Amino acid sequence: MAKPTGAACNLACTYCFFLSKNQILGDDERVSERMMELHLRRYLEAQPDGDVTVAWQGGEPMMRGYGFFAHAFACAERLARPGQCIHHVLQTNGTLIDDRWAELFSRHHVLVGVSMDGPAELHDVYRVNYAGRGSHNAVVAGWRALERHDVQRNVLCAVRAVNEGHPLEVYRYFRDELGAEHMQFIPIVERVHRRQLEIAENGWRETDGRRLLYRQEGHAVTSRSVSAKGWGRFLNTVFDEWVSRDVGRRFVQLFDVMLGNIFGMHSLCVHSPKCGNALVLTHDGDVYCCDHFVEPGYRLGDIMRLGYKALVDSPVNLRFSRLKSSLSSDCLDCPVRWACHGGCPKDRFAEDGDGGHILNYLCSGYKAFFSHALPAMSVMAELVDRGEPAARVMEMRWGTRSGCVEEGEHV
Predict the structure, then answer these.
(1) Core-most of 16, 168, 275, 321, by most CB within 10 Å?
(2) Mind listing the pLDDT tens digit for each residue in 100-121?
(3) Read out DSSP for 192-246?
(4) For 23-37, what is the mean pLDDT?
(5) Which pLDDT band holds residue 26 (cuts at 50, 70, 90)?
(6) SS3 label, residue 406
(7) Run of H or E including 397
């Protein structure tokens, strides 16, 4: 995942930990076109033939400019081997998208992820510009531009304290108002040492001369963070709405991931047995283990000297990938371990039954969701295994004790 503007962004979202990373990345956060070409060359050399996804993120990647991306898209096509088919994915806050940008994305078949946290009254609490004003109207304008040009798009929604209690309002807004067909819900967990809470509550950009570098350390969380129980309730409520009317028409990443895990197909690092294959390239050519671990100790090297295969196989990355296997007895004995795999290592700081702090902070929420969704997911898996549409699950109704039954039968 390439970050052509490093940590630089035109918004100052209060919960955005990456804003603090310019303390590591520096203030000159613009990848050069030469570095971009080297990245694409190295990356494509390391990929097999077939579909190849090229991912762009930030900060806000669109701040690098229209000309940069027009050149990058053309460069990727030029460098690709005849057997490679390039697919670009770009994650953006959406505020800079206009018809010119949307036409460029459409022409190059770019999948655009737009960050939005629900309707304006929920979105604008934390997703603000540097003047403190909400960004919702600008994001919607960008979404409509993508819509006009038929650009592939999805919504990435950060679930935190403000919107965790409004799952149906959020989901229905994306579905009914925006017409979104693909959605991702990610939990916001701002981990911090207790002694640093007062500063962290102000956010991750400099405030009154005080600023923290966000690290994956500490056993406390900010008040903005989603609660474990709230995360479970949010997912369960959205799932119940989705499974009753939207299967096959709307696609929620975590639901797809759970279904895939039933078949042993792990598509998301968070709920895979291992991680370490989601490297991050910063604007200066440095490569880190993961977007959440751009910090000292997790730098793998730089692409000026090493190719991506060497970086993936480096001792630092191999050690990082083993973090997933450090499971507490709570996880080892959990009936939904196959679906969760302990979650992301960045969130493993809650006290476990062994007296340590390697249990996922969101454990109770994940366990509640995976347990709640399992009856319906098992039916969908059986349908898929028989070559039938998973959407047939909507023809069934659900009993509180007996799982699902065909319409016309009795619980």
Answers:
(1) 16
(2) 999 999 999 999 999 999 999 9
(3) E-GGGHHHHTT-SS-BTTB-----S--SEE-TTSPPHHHHHHHHHHHHHHHHHHT
(4) 88
(5) confident
(6) strand
(7) strand 396-399
Please state, in angstroms and rounded to a whole number, the distance separating the CA atoms of residues 123 and 127: 6
Sign of the dihedral defined by the CA atoms of residues 108, 109, 113, 119, in that order: positive
Token representation of residue 336 = 């939904």
Place of tokens 């604007």: 283
List CB contacts of 233: < 8 A, sequence separation 6 or more: 164, 165, 167, 365, 368
pLDDT of residue 396: 83
- Please give the helix or strand (H or E) that residue 111 lies within, else none: strand 111-115
Q: What angle do CA 354, 358, 361 make, to 5 degrees?
A: 115
Residues annotated catalytic, as ranges: 291
Residues 80 and 50: their CA atoms lie apart, in Å, by 10
3-state DSSP call for residue 184? strand
Residues 6+ apart with CB under 8 A from 271: 254, 257, 258, 261, 339, 340, 341, 343
Distance, CA of 143 to chain centre: 18
Q: Where in 319-364 does DSSP place strands (E)? A: 348-350, 359-360
Residue 389 phi, psi (nearest 5): -65, 135
| Rg of the chain in Å (alpha carbons) | 21
Query: Does residue 349 contact residue 191 with C-beta atoms inside 8 Å?
Result: yes
Q: Which two tokens stand for residue 58?
A: 């930030």
Give the β-pairing of 111-115 and 153-159.
Answer: parallel
Helix crossing, 99-107 with 66-79: angle to 10°? 0
Query: Is the Cβ–Cβ distance between 140 and 124 less than 8 Å?
Result: no
Using alpha carbons, select from 338, 397, 394 the residue that is nearest to residue 366.
Answer: 338
Q: How far is CA 341 from the centre of its chain?
A: 17
DSSP string, 31-42: --HHHHHHHHHH
Instruction: Return the structure tokens found at 227.
Output: 């609660």
SS3 410: coil
Q: What is the pTM of this model?
A: 0.94
**Residue 309 burial class via C-beta count within 10 angstroms: exposed 0-12, middle 13-18, buried 19 and up:** exposed
How many angstroms separate the Cα of 143 from the Cα of each of 11, 108, 130, 276?
Answer: 17, 17, 21, 32
Inter-residue contact 212 to 201 (CB < 8 Å) = no
Strands (E), 255-334: 280-281, 286-288, 299-302
Q: Residues, the chain, total?
A: 411
